[in-house]
Amino acid sequence: ETGVTQTPRHLVMGMTNKKSLKCEQHLGHNAMYWYKQSAKKPLELMFVYNFKEQTENNSVPSRFSPECPNSSHLFLHLHTLQPEDSALYLCASSHSGTSEYNEQFFGPGTRLTVL
Amino acid sequence: GQNIDQPTEMTATEGAIVQINCTYQTSGFNGLFWYQQHAGEAPTFLSYNVLDGLEEKGRFSSFLSRSKGYSYLLLKELQMKDSASYLCAVKDSNYQLIWGAGTKLIIKP
Description:
The structure holds two protein chains of two kinds.
Chain A: E1 4-7, E2 10-13, E3 18-25, E4 31-37, E5 44-50, E6 53-57, E7 64-70, E8 73-79, E9 87-94, E10 105-106, E11 110-114
Chain B: E1 3-5, E2 9-13, E3 18-25, E4 32-37, E5 44-49, E6 53-57, E7 60-65, E8 70-75, E9 84-91, E10 97-99, E11 103-108
Parallel strand pairs in B: 2-11
Antiparallel strand pairs in B: 1-3, 3-8, 4-5, 4-9, 6-7, 7-8, 9-10, 9-11
């Protein structure tokens, strides 16, 4: 399998549930990203990991908790979410988090609905 | 604050040419990217500009003017499959990508 994969592709959860999103990249990259994409809004960068170290946390609420056990895997743990957290969550990877030309490769996303 | 502006939606005819503009105000500049995103799919990389001028890649070209904070994506010989959203993103001084909201391009026969 190649590229960036994400599971599940769709997720419906209640506000009291706990769930996790998984991302895996098969590109040998060292940087991984979580983005939130809401309709008609710019992509919002949530977290960045560079060589397994978290380098960015853009004021994301604590109900979102990332985990990066190695350079190929990234998780987003979800708990006590709000309906406004419903969105498409995209994972991306790149060679490095700190260079000019650094194309990011995206996974297909997880469509999250919070009831 | 940092800001990327692009039109929300554009309509064009199959076989024609369309230009999608992007203006930006960012803290620092380390390159500008264009991505294509079909509905329900992942964004895919189209082009990268870091120096002023035009970069051509097949039917797609991207132009950059750093002094004007301006870029455009030019799509020629439009095909129905070009119907998608086109995302402009600028890498700032911290090497973070700042994204525009995207331009939804509708191609009509």
